[in-house]
Each structure stands twice: as C-alpha cells, then as structure tokens.
C-alpha cells in the first residue's frame, strides 16, 4: 500500500475493527462475542452509535465500558450496564426471546457459508488441538436476528471444510437454515482485515463486496482456503477517518494500561 | 442449618472422593480459595461441573483430581486456551478424562432445571450444532402444543456446589451481587452448598428488597475468606487480576512449571493467604 492511500498509517487489523464498527447501528441490540467483536462494538458506541445496546453473555445489558474487558464478565461491564441479569435469564429471556438484533461473533475456523468452528482442530474424540468450545455462540448464531462475523484472514482460519460445526451459519448453503426450521437470517456480514463479504442471496456463499484500501484480489485469495468469489460491483472500503482511528487507538491504549495495571510482582 | 466453619472444615465436611461437584462463578466471584482447599485435601475421581472451567479446573485437572468434566467453555477468558485441560483431553495427561460438552444456554437451562426440581430442561438450542451429535445427553422433545422441536438436556444436580459471595449476615443468609451468573441456580440445584464470603455483617435489614439473597437454610456451610475469589474479583471489594490470567497461560503451558507453581502457591499455602493477594486490587473496586 502506498503512503498516498494510507496517510494515517492504519494497520489491516485497525481497518477490520473500524469497518466492523461501521456496520452497527445506533438502535441495534448487539450480543457481543469475546475477542475481536468487542473492540468493534465499542468503537461503534464511541463514534456513530452512542445509544447502541451492547450485551455481554455475563448478563450485562447496555454496557458502556471505558476499557475493553479482558473477559466477558469484567466488573466494569456491570458497573456501566443499564441492568445486570442472571446467566439463565440472559440466555432464556433476552437471546432465546428474540430480543437481539445482531449477534457479533469471532471464529477460529470459518467456511464459505459462515459456519464457525471454535471447538476442535482434528477429530472431536481425538483432537489435534482442543479449543475452548462454543460458550454462548451456538445459540447466538441461531437466535439473533442477524449474525456478523469478524476475523483476520488466513488459510488456516478460512477453510473449505471446518473440523466441527460449533455454530451454524448457512449450513450447506441455500435454504439450509429454513429446512432446519430456523427463521433467523444467520450470517449476513463478514468483516476481515482485507475485505467486506456478504452472502450471495441464493447460494449464501460469502462473496467479497468491498476491498479495504490498497488490498488486491490476489491478497484476499492467497489468505483464504476456498476459491473466492467477488461481486461484479466491487467497491473499496472507505479508509478510517481520523476520529475513528483515534477512538480505536485511545481505547486500546486505555485497555493495555488497565490490564497491566493489576500486575504486582509474584501475585498468584 | 448453616454452620460457620473454617474453609478447610467446610470442604472436608461436604466434599467426598467421587462426588459430582460444581465450583461456580461466571468470571466474577470464582471460588478459588475453596478449589485450592479441595486440591490441598487431595480429593480424587471428581466429576467437575462448570460453565466456564477456567483456572481452577485447569489446576484440579492438572493435579489429576477429575475423572470427568461437564462444561460449556473450556478456555481462559480473553486469553486463550486452558493448557492443563488440553493436555488431559489431547494426551491423557496426567490421566484420561471424560468430557461432556454443552453450550452456555444448555448449561444455564440445565442448572435452572436442577434448581426447579425438574428432570430435564427444554429450550430452543443446539440447532444445526455439532455438539448434538457428540454428546448423547443432548436430545430433543416436540412441543405438544405447537409441534416445534426443542432441545432437551438433563437437569444438573450436583452433590455439592461451592460459590464465593460478598457477605453473610450473622444468621448465615448470603448476599450475591454484581454479575450473579449461575450461582443461585447452582446452589439450589445441589444437595449441599458451601459459600465462602468476604465478610460477615450484623444484619441485612437495610438491603434493597430485590437483591439476590440465599436464605441460610439453603446453605450447609459458610467460611469467611477475604480475597477468596482471587484472581477473579468480588464486586465492591477488589477488581479482577487480569495480569494473573495472562500469566497463567505461561505457567500452565509447561508440566513442571505448573507443578512447581502449585506446590508454592497452593499446596504450601492456606486460605489465609488470599487476603494479601488482593490488597493491590482493592483501591480500584
């Protein structure tokens, strides 16, 4: 990427977070997955969507943390929430009850239909790598009205065939969700460090609709394990604005200082 | 009726080899002191239940105490993997363990069913999810009114549940506040419940009427352990020691380093050592 295209010096990860934040609306009720989604959701709240409702699975509804939580249950989420409910209430009344507009998830492994694996690499009963598992994601993926996914691209992460179906996306594609009796939209947006993707209306295969500034089609294909489809009307993602970039960097600096701030010698 | 005991007495009286036990706490109020006491007393063949096993189950699994774990997220929240649990699942070290894996919704509903005295929980879940194919305890039922197919999982009914809470009053009623997680359900679902608390106060007369209070007759034993949820946190008392969670990733990565750390920080210590660990975390709370 030339200097001219990137005078602010943003990184691909910063572009990813900011592009993801732009997808959220002020009146969204967003169930925030652990990791990358949390940064995007809070940048949205600190820029164009000040009234967005951010919900973490620890039961905190309407949180407004000053620093990004390390876990989904840091105390600041509760301190700044409109209300904090129990975990069964969170999953029964709020998620299963159909009150979430956007479920925002990350992924260890993703396929072209937006199916996510965060459970195992290899065989479930003899795993090569045992990952943390689904947590709240299997039901976030099917009970939220829509699902957004964000992850950095890699051939290991974006694969033709995932090792385990932790959370359903569009299954085998097409109307598979409907055939399973699921009436929510599933994944409608994928934001990576290189591009913005949307599912094809018929096949539901994720298709690149916008390349981030300075990114080529070849770069997207080289970091993706399936044959990438690009839309005819391919766009370029607008660069981060100064305000977006400053908001994200300030948030990450506050977060780093806060998390290191608890360190103390040999504290067990 | 509830007894006020030392933590070592409370654990010894209520936990047995082979028990099905839940040490619950959803990021907040994790009963670390009680888990460390169980490790010192050396229980074996436990079935460990917890939505988010995190550090204490990594430690108990690494010490060879578990024959089975029931869980929905076997990670170090915000940091990554649990390396002792991985070693057990991937390599059978220090012993083979059986796993029963659910989603958070599945576990939360199963605890609620346990508290409600039901045999199973019914909810809209696991649709299109791979877990239903590998966990025989995930089944389905058809709604007799609408015909909708719903997920069903057996109720969780631990022999004993351990939780940590802010305070008890002199009669042994317990207050839990902040992120209350699954603690109330885990206590009511269990045959016996043991609670460690930060402090005991004279009475709860001035509390807001809708706070989460567990009446003393739902609890077998209370132990006062200031700092007892470190490196987790107790809302209003001390903040989460995020640095310790980051550090755990390195400690647990190596079998020998893990053993040395456990010897120094758990086996050779007692519940009284927790208060000092949270001193530097109190000001921000």
UniProtKB/TrEMBL annotation, chain A:
Keywords: Transferase
GO molecular function, one term: CoA-transferase activity
SUPFAM superfamilies: NagB/RpiA/CoA transferase-like
Coiled-coil ranges per UniProt: none
Alphabetized InterPro entries for the sequence: CoA_trans_fam_I (IPR004165), NagB/RpiA_transferase-like (IPR037171)
The UniProt record lists the keyword Transcription regulation: no
PANTHER family: ACETATE COA-TRANSFERASE YDIF, CHOLESTEROL RING-CLEAVING HYDROLASE IPDB SUBUNIT
Protein's name in the database: Glutaconate CoA-transferase subunit B
Source organism per UniProt: Mesorhizobium tianshanense
From TrEMBL, chain B:
Highest taxon of the lineage: Bacteria
SMART domains with a match to the protein in the record: CoA_trans
Gene Ontology terms for molecular function: CoA-transferase activity
Pfam families the record matches: CoA_trans
Record's keyword annotation contains Repeat: no
Gene3D superfamilies: Glutaconate Coenzyme A-transferase
InterPro entries on file: CoA_trans_fam_I, NagB/RpiA_transferase-like
Keyword field: Transferase
PANTHER family assigned to the protein according to its UniProt record, in alphabetical order: ACETATE COA-TRANSFERASE YDIF, CHOLESTEROL RING-CLEAVING HYDROLASE IPDB SUBUNIT
The protein, known as: Glutaconate CoA-transferase subunit A
Organism: Mesorhizobium tianshanense
